[in-house]
Design a protein that fits this description.
The chain has 295 residues and is of the alpha/beta class. 44% of the residues lie in helices and 19% in strands. The chain has 14 helices and twelve strands. The strands form three sheets. The chain has a seven-stranded parallel sheet, sandwiched between helices. Strands 7-9-11 form a three-stranded mixed sheet. A two-stranded parallel ribbon has the order 8-12. Strand 1, helix 1 and strand 2 form a beta-alpha-beta unit. Helix 1 packs across helix 9 and helix 5 packs parallel to helix 7. It is globular, with a radius of gyration of 19 Å.
């Protein structure tokens, strides 16, 4: 297949692209900068210059492909407080890509979760501004698109991770002199190594049925306290509980995420695709030290 990928040069994209190339697919990656273009070329993929604001260009690229994998997102919005605006822009991209593929039977793979039937979990999902884009992707199945949703673990980690939950917590801990968690820190974050996530996207493209909800989760839930204690030990600072009424002051724009508790399991995905994560777990990856080189 000829596969068009947004975010091809990013953390997850850089794991997905080699998987697809090794499986014999042609890959075209969207690049908004010279650095991104160079990264995509170095992996052996074709480059299409552009950005997420050029909706006509995205429609054109999607129409010329057999499948589209949409990974790009403005992750800087987590730290700037513009998450809702970034989610709105993402929805516009999803709609453009889906419109281009409507009625073709081609594949659109996006990131997100649809309703699960668990009222508590569905409330958390709906509270995420990105949930509208996920529902939109799922809805394209009824318009003749082979739509697939991949729920990516909140902590997708590797040596290439620069903007995820772990780098943000480490930056906060460095600045505050303590590695914090809220309350008893028993809330859990699902995790997966980026290379395992890359293999899941390849399997999804090759094997998943239209409308499938997939879970890129290797570990169902690692407690935030264990994560904070590991960060503290590596930085040489204490791990401490931050009272809930001080969380916003301590964690700033990351405060809404520090208390997330979304344990996820990937049993159905593993059975459907034959996916088996083989790379290091979250704490092991933290202990390897690459997250702590540089400031």
């Amino acid at each position: 297949m000829r596969v068009f990928i947004t975010g091809a040069g990013g953390h997850i994209g850089s794991a997905v692209v080699p998987e697809l190339l090794q499986a014999g697919h042609e890959v075209v990656g969207l690049a908004r900068s010279d650095a991104s273009a160079d990264a995509i070329k170095s992996m052996g993929a074709e480059v299409r210059r552009g950005d997420l604001h050029d909706l006509d260009g995205l429609r054109e690229a999607a129409s010329a492909a057999d499948a589209v994998i949409h990974l790009a997102f403005d992750h800087d919005a987590l730290s700037t407080g513009n998450f809702a605006d970034a989610a709105g822009a993402d929805l516009a991209v999803v709609q453009a890509l889906g419109d281009a593929l409507a009625g073709t039977g081609k594949t659109l793979i996006g990131v997100g979760m649809g309703p699960t039937g668990d009222a508590a979990l569905d409330a958390v999902i709906s509270a995420n501004p990105r949930s509208t884009a996920a529902r939109t992707i799922a809805g394209f199945t009824e318009r003749g698109v082979r739509s697939l949703l991949v729920a990516i673990a909140p902590v997708t980690h590797s040596a290439r991770d620069r903007v995820g939950f772990l780098p943000r917590l480490i930056k906060i801990a460095r600045g505050a002199g303590v590695s914090g968690y809220v309350g008893d820190g028993a809330n859990r974050w699902p995790a997966a190594h980026a290379l395992d996530v890359g293999s899941l996207f390849r399997l999804a493209l090759d094997k998943a049925p239209a409308g499938a909800q997939l879970y890129a989760v290797a570990e169902p839930g690692v407690t935030v306290r264990e994560i904070a204690e590991t960060i503290g030990r590596r930085l040489g600072v204490p791990a401490v509980s931050i009272p809930a009424d001080r969380a916003a002051d301590h964690f700033k724009s990351f405060a809404p995420f520090i208390t997330l508790d979304i344990p996820l399991v990937s049993t159905s995905t593993r059975e459907l695709l034959g996916w088996e994560p083989v790379h290091p777990g979250l704490i092991t990856d933290l202990e390897e030290g690459h997250y702590f080189t540089g400031e």
